[in-house]
Amino acid sequence: MTSIIEVNKLKKSFGDLEVLTNVSFTVHPGEVVAVIGPSGSGKSTMLRSLVHLEEVTGGSIHIQSEALVEDGKYSSGAKIKSITSRMGMVFQHFNLFPHLNVQDNLELAPKFVKKESSGELRRRSTELLAKVGLEDKAKVYPAKLSGGQKQRVAIARALMMNPDILLFDEPTSALDPELTGEVLRVIKQLAEEHMTMIIVTHEMNFARDVADRVIFMDKGEIAEEGTPEQIFGNPQLTRTKSFLNKVESN
Question: Is the pTM of this model over 0.90?
Fold first, then answer.
C-alpha cells in the first residue's frame, strides 16, 4: 500500500538544542496514528513540521508522494502551499476568531482560499456543525462557547477545507475532564470514517481505543512503535514502560 505520509531521518535543532533526531515513520491512507511521550520529547515539533509550521534542519517529508522537503531542502513556496493545503490542523487552543460567529469562522478560509460560492459554503458549514453536534450554535460567538464546543468548532473548521489528512496537537489538553469526552467522540467518529489522522495526545485510553498504531517518542526520537496492544500491553523498552507507569499512576 502506498504511504500517504512518509517521514525519513527528520532532524530539527534550535541552536545547539536538538529537538528531533533521525525521526522516520510512514502513515497509510485511512490510518490513525497516536503519538505519545513525555513533554519535551519532540511530538508537537514533529507534527508542526508536517504542515511547515516548523522548518526542519535535515531529512525528508513526502505527502502523497510529493516532497515537502527532501534531504533538508524545501520545495518551492507554491508547491509547499499546494501540499500543506491537503492537511488540516487542530491545535490545543482552538484559535477561533473571536469577532466572528461560529458559522463565519468555518466559512472564512474556504471563502478566501478556495473562492467557493456562499451557497456551497453555507451548505457545508451547516452539515459539518451538525456532524460535530453544534448545529444550534451557528450564530453564536466563541466567547459564549465552552472549551469542548470551541474545539469541536475547530475540528469542523479544519474539515471545511476537505483535507486528506487531519493532524491533532493535544486536542483535549486545554479542556476540563468533563469536556474531553465530547471532543474525543468526534475524533473517534472521524476514525470510523477512515480519515487519515495523526493525533498527539496524552489520553492513553483514547489512543488505545482509537489508534491503529501508536508511536512513543522520547528525547527527540521514536523510541518504540506498534499496535496499541503491543505498546500498552507489552512494551519492549524500559523507557516506554516507565512512561506508561507514570501516566497510569497519575
Answer: yes
